[in-house]
Each structure stands twice: as C-alpha cells, then as structure tokens.
Amino acid sequence: MSTFISFVLAIISSMLIDNVVLSRFYGICPFLGVSRKVKSSLGMGIAVVFVIILATCICWPLYTYVLEPAEIPFMDTVAYILVIASLVQLVGLFIKKYSPSLYKSLGIYLPLITTNCAVLGVVQSNTDQGLTFLNALANGIGTSVGFLVVIVVFSCIRVRLESANTPKAFKGLPIALITAAIMAIAFMGLQGLFSGIKL
Amino acid sequence: MKREKGQTKKNFLKGIIQENPLLVSILGTCPALATTKSLEAAIGMGILFTIVLLCSNVLISLLRKLIPDEIRTPAYIVIIATFVTMVKMFTNAFLPELYSTLGVFISLIVVNCIVLGRAEAYASKNGVFDSFIDALGMGVGYTLSLCLLAFFRELLGTGGFTFGQIFTFIPLTKLIIPGAEKFAISLFQTPAGAFIVFGIVLAVVAFIKNRKAELKAFEAKQAKLKAAEEAKAKLAAQQAQGGQQ
Amino acid sequence: MANTKRYVITAITLGIIGAASAGIIGVTNLVTREKIKQNEQNKINEGIAEIFGHNSTIFNTQSIENEKYTNTVYFVKADEKNQYAFRADGSNMYGKISLLVGFNELNQFKGISVIVNEQTYASTLVNNYINPMKEADNKDDALEDVSCGATYGAKLIRDLVNDARNVVKKINAKE
Description:
The complex is a heterotrimer. Chain A is mainly α. Chain A has nine helices and no strands.
C-alpha cells in the first residue's frame, strides 16, 4: 500500500468513521458550550484545527527524540500539557501581531483550547498507540477537521432547535444531546467503510 | 463551634447536590460519556478523579500564598499533571485492567475543567481543611453521577451488571436479570447510547429544577395570598372594633 | 528594580514546582516499574496457558533479531511435546499491537493471545476477528478471513502470524 493512500485513508478514518466527538468523546465541552451560533462554532473549530496540527508537529518529535532517548517517557503528559498551554499563548500573540482581524474572530476561543481534551487526547493517543510521524500527522489533521465539521453541523441544527417546540424539561442542553445521539447513530453507519477497498 | 460543623456538612453536600459538577454545572462531560459503559469502569474513573482532585486541591490551597499571581494557571496545570501522572503509574502497576479500560482518559483528567475550576475558584482562596472537604464533596458528587449514567447504560445495554472484570481482586460475578439478556439494547453500549442517557438524565434534572421553581413560586403566591387575607381580616376586625366603639 | 525582583521570584517558583514535579514522578516510576514489568510477564504467562492449556511450562526463551524486528520465542512444554510461542509486535496506521502466537510441534498454527492492543478499533477487532478465531476449529481459515469491520488490524495480525510461522520454521530447520 502506498504511503500516500494510507495517509489519506488515515485522515478520512479519524475524521468520519472514528469521529473525535461522536465516537471518541474528546472535546464534548466546547461541542456543547460553543455551538449556539454558527459563527462562533466556526471560529472555535478553526482555532482547534490550528492548535491540534501544531501540537502534533511539536509533541511527536518531542516524545520520540527527547523523552524516549532520555528514558523518561513517563513525563509525557506533563510535557504535552506544557507545550499545549504555551503554544496557545504563542499562537495568540502571533495572530494578534500579524492579523488583528483574525485575532478578533479567533482570539476569545484560544484560551478555551488549553482545557479542550481533544488536543491533549490526540497528542497523547498518538504516542500511546505508537504511530509513525506521518500517521500521527494524519490523525491530527483528520481529528481536528472532523471536529470542525461536526461542531459546525451541530450548531446549524441547534439554531433550528431554539425555535422548535420542545418539552420544557428538554429545552437547551438535553435536546441538544439527543440530537448528538442521532448524529452519532448516523456516523456509526460509516463503520467498515474501507472493507471493500483492495490494497 | 456547632455552626462550624454545620458549615462543613453544607460544604460537603453542595458538591453532591446543589453544585453537582456533572449534572448541574455540566463540567467534565468527556469522561462522563466515555467511561460509563460499565458500572465498574465508572466507579474506577470516579475514584481516580477524586484522588487527583483531593491531592491537587490540598496542595494548591497549601501553596496559595507562595505562588505569584502571574503564573497561577501554569503552576496549577503542572501540579495537576504531576498528580495525574502518579495516579496513572499506580493504576498501571496495581490495577492493569482498569488502566487498559480507561486508556487515555486517565491522562485526560489533566484537562478536566472541574479540577482546574475548583483550584481556581475554591482552593486558591480557602484554607486547607475547607478545600479538602470541597474536593471530597465534588469528587463524590462526580462519582455518583458517573455511576448513575453507567447504571442505566449497563442495565439497558447488557441486561444486568458484571463485576470483577476490572477490579480483579473481587471474584467475577454476573448479576443478570433472568431473561433480560435477550432484550438488551446494545445501542446503549455505543457512543450514541451515552448521549441519549446523558440527555435524558439532564432533562430529568431540569424537570426537578423547574418543579422546584414552580413550587417555590406557588408557595410564594400562597404566602402572599395568606398575608393579604390576614391583612383583610385584621382590617375587618379593626373596623368591627371601631364600630363597637 | 521591583519588576526584576518579581520576575526572578516568578521564575524561581516555577522552576521549583517543575523540579519537584519531575522528582516526584521519577520516584513514583521507580516504585511502580518492577510491578509493571511483572504485570506484563503475568500477561504472557496467562496467554501461554490460554493457548496451550494449563499444564504448559516455559523451559527456554530465545530472542531473535533480524532487520525487521527483535522478538522473543518461548519454548513451551505442553502435553509432553515441544511447542512454540512467538511474541510478535507490529503496528499500522491505527496503532500498535502485540501478540503471542502459538505453534504446535508440527508447526501448525495453534492460536493467539493479545498482550497489547492499542488499535483505534480495538474492540471491533477483538469481537469480530480474534474471538471468532479463538473459537474456530480451523484456525488457518479463520486467520485468512480478515473482513471484520477492522480490516487493517486483522490484516496486520495475519501478517504477524505468517511472519512468526516463517521464523519458527527456520528454528525447526536448524534443529
């Protein structure tokens, strides 16, 4: 199997089949919290894509070329969370300096990303699963784009739910969760998508 | 002294009921959905979470005057990550089954909003004992709500409960309702089932809240009516008195 | 001046917290390392008992190195016959997997036991491929039937088993 095809398949698989929110349960907090408006969910999603890809590119070499040769692989979680926290700060400063308009739309979501478990979850499972750098990158891209897709779709649904006539007890979050369940069922249908592809 | 005792109890109970981190504040939802496939996993996750919360709350409350304000958040994150790594290693050594079941979600306690939230909101402002009680209440409250979700998911998804698969020191026991196995809805073991159960539980919580609010409003209305009636009666009595005179 | 002092204090505090954290984690690692190693060994023993039955004993181990992998062969005595268990590690784009592959004295594939399964679709793989294989009468056919919803993981297992078969054949030829 050529490397390129496997790269693309890994992206699609972590984006759709094993979706980050609907089947791996990373990043439920922003998924429920920042999805009231389409615009804000788009901003959050793009910020997450940005940070996850950068964090993958830093943390994977950090683990493989620094922590593992130094025989301290058990420091991984501490190192990752520090990298992510400082990365979020740096990205914030960088965007503020070079593109104030982008900062205006993304800036408020950046601090929220430090405690978004999607970022740490992807970075940690990359090294826990022993992926190669290319596959780790594919996992990062796929996961973050999957997050973006799902949170935008979900916010579109939620906008309509606001005006729907739901029972009083289900108003707000409960009906949003039920909607997410139906989305998860829909995504379950994608399992085994690659079974037919001969490589 | 007695008042202090009452306060401690109140401090403990608020984490379980009024400010339940999962069901009322809706924090820490990721592990709540991912680790509630079985009751045992939920209990294990709850215990690990409580240990981390207790340790970090106590230490942060001890160090609250030493840590400069500018680096509060990074310092807290490092402290929490240290405890999480310790808990992770001990789990790997002494309960390997729990470690492999929870997987990456043990590491993800680091970014659980509850732990950092309690550190910022409570432990950095209060004494050691109060922080300890606060953490204990929050931890127990979180564990109980995880168990609530897991109870429904395992019961509906498998038709009963299995113990001893993760905590290998207790013998393997299966408590399955006879005949229920055939009617188990395996959807509840999948991610979709987690969302459904969580949604319905939140709806029940909202229902109780609404009911309480309605009851309060009703009582307030009754009290108002009663007060008005009393005032009326008083007025009437006064008038009657005036008439007699 | 006051600012400089403040920066120094901040840096020192952060440094102390970082150093203390590293120290504590290091000590914890020392305490738990042996136990974790022992857990892995227990898992291997359990796997051998699962494949060969409870009357089996490991009487020799040998590590094998070639350009592709470094692995361990366990020589197992079960039912008075010399049999082999092969520790095979592999990984694909969904993560790593570590298996114990059993062969009987005639080099026939006898069964597998999973030691580490870090695959993304780990549970699908176990439920739809490994468990049916454990129950199947004809293990070789079950091994070839890789369509299970986690096809890449199943293919990885098949390749690992076939690699192990070749290595065990070589050992037999030498003897």
